[in-house]
């Protein structure tokens, strides 16, 4: 029993001896601590198991932000993703907006226009005429040049004399327009006598051979119409074959 009481103090003394010696930091740095004591304290801290985390210092001229994490894609829609996409597009299109502006202005910084300093109006399109600009025209035109241009225009001016209308060909084909204007009676009014049986059926059969009523009327006039109707194209005797109507021609002549 006495052996146990003796053994316990021995174990406690061994644990105390194995524990790292931590210097007293209650005094602080710069408050009565000499340089040698500070070095001893730093050496004791480095030899102990306690580690003081190093403070990340911002680089000179920096913002103090932590360094970017590499190997991790930014969250879609975040500011980092937008900045990365903008950088990629600028790299594909040939540089930043400032570089493009410098290239367009031949290396000269663009003028910042404002209400008190408006941007100059520059017309670089040769396809746009400046004839309405008095200063532009006055710079290259004179009274003498205007007179010479007028003389050139007069020399190129040509007067075209009217010519007689061409005559119709020597065809003996009847003119249905002239025939329509010579007549005055309406369609269906009997003017000429017709004889024969089944006149309507015969007219329908023969009129079907013509592509149009105008061609039927022309052939009707060529065969002696309107006084004679050899093919039975005008069974009602009005002088108009195969339902040909002179009314449109009469209206056209009257305007």
Describe this structure in words.
The chain contains ten helices and no strands. Among the domains are: 17-48, no CATH class; 176-254, no CATH class. With 255 residues, it is an all-alpha fold. 41% of the residues lie in helices and 0% in strands. The chain has helices at residues 2-18, 35-47, 79-92, 97-104, 134-138, 143-156, 176-182, 199-207, 213-222, 247-254.
What structural category arises from helix and sheet content? Answer: mainly alpha
Report the radius of gyration as a whole number of Å: 58 Å
Terminus-to-terminus distance? 148 Å
**Strand residue content:** under 5%
Oligomer: single chain
Poorly predicted residue ranges: none
Secondary-structure map with pairings?
Layout: H1 2-18, H2 35-47, H3 79-92, H4 97-104, H5 134-138, H6 143-156, H7 176-182, H8 199-207, H9 213-222, H10 247-254
Properties at a glance:
255 residues, mainly alpha, 10 helices, 41% helix
Short description:
This protein is an all-alpha fold and 255 residues long.
